[in-house]
Amino acid sequence: MARFLFFVTLLLAGGFGFVRADAPASPEDRLAAAQKVADGLHYQQGEITLRNGLAKINLSPNFRYLDPRESKTVLTTLWGNPDPGENLLGMLVPTNAGVVGSDAWAIVISFNEDGYVKDGDAAKINYDELLKKMREDAHKASEARAAKGYAAMELTGWAAPPRYDAAAHKLYWALDFRFGDSAEDTLNYNIRMLGRRGVLVLNAVAGMGQLGEIEKAAPTILSMVDFQEGHRYVDFKPGTDKVATYGLAALITGGVLAKAGIFKGFWALLLAAKKFVLVAIAAIAAAIKKFFGKLTGRGKSTNVPT
Q1: The total number of structural domains that make up the chain
Q2: Residue span of the structural domain in which 138 resides
Q3: Is residue 23 domain-resident?
Q4: Residue 225: inside a domain, yes or no?
Q5: Whose CB among 3, 137, 144, 156 lies 3.0–4.6 Å from 284's, allowing a Cys bridge?
Q6: Which pTM value belongs to this model?
Q7: CA of 94: how far to CAs of 160, 195, 211, in Å?
C-alpha cells in the first residue's frame, strides 16, 4: 500500500514523470490516465530472445514480459524514474498483477558488459562484515541526502543473505531499506547471473511486504532466464576475453553498478519506493573502495570500479 500511496503522491504533486502541464486536473482523472497507459502495454509470453541471442527467457505461465521500450514507459512515465538507458533489456511482470496498484511488482532486467567476473572470492567474503560497513556508509550517505532535502535512509539489514550457486554461476540476495517515516520498508531483491562477457542484472521492484512472494518465485525466475551458448560463463576464453576488474563482493556493494551508470538510469536500489538515491550510492561506492583493501588483505583495492 505504501508504494501505491507514493505513486498517488507523485500524481498529485506533479513533480515527476507522468504528470505534465497538460495532465488531467483531478486525482481520479490522473489515475485513470495512468491506468490507460498500463492497459495499452503489450505483454509477451512464451520464449523471449534478449539482445540478439545474448540470453533467452522461457516464460512460465506466472510471468509476462515487456520489451525495453515499454519497460521504459513503466519506469519513467508511470513510476517517475529517469531514463533507464541502453542497458535495459526488459521487465518480467507477474501474470496476477499489473504495473499500477498496491499489488504491483516486477523484475527489471539489464546487462553489464564489463567482462568475465571471477568468482574465486565467493568463499572468502565475510558477509556480516560487509553488511556492517555498508550500513555505516548508508548512514553517512543518508546525512548527505538529508542535506539535499531527501528523506533519511537506513539500511536495516539483509532481507535474505547472499547465496551463490557455484554450479549455475548465479548470485542472489536481498536488502531491507527504510526511508523516513514510510509505513513500509523498501525491498532491494537482487539476482546476478554471470556470463562470458558480463553480468545479467535482475532487480525486483517491490515492497518488503512482497518478500515472501518474491522468494517463492525466485527459483522460477532463476530457471526462466539464462545466457545462451557462446555467452555462458563456461564459454569464457582465457587470454582472449575481457576479464572484469571486480569480483562477487563488488556486485553486492553496488560499486560496479555505479561505474556502469545504472544508478543514473533506473536506480537499481530502492526503485520500488520510487526514491532517488544517487547521492547515497555515490557515497557508499566511494567508501567501499577503501574497505575492500582490508577485506581482501591487499591494502589498496584495485577491485572496485569508480
Answers
A1: 1
A2: 44-296
A3: no
A4: yes
A5: 137
A6: 0.74
A7: 21, 26, 14
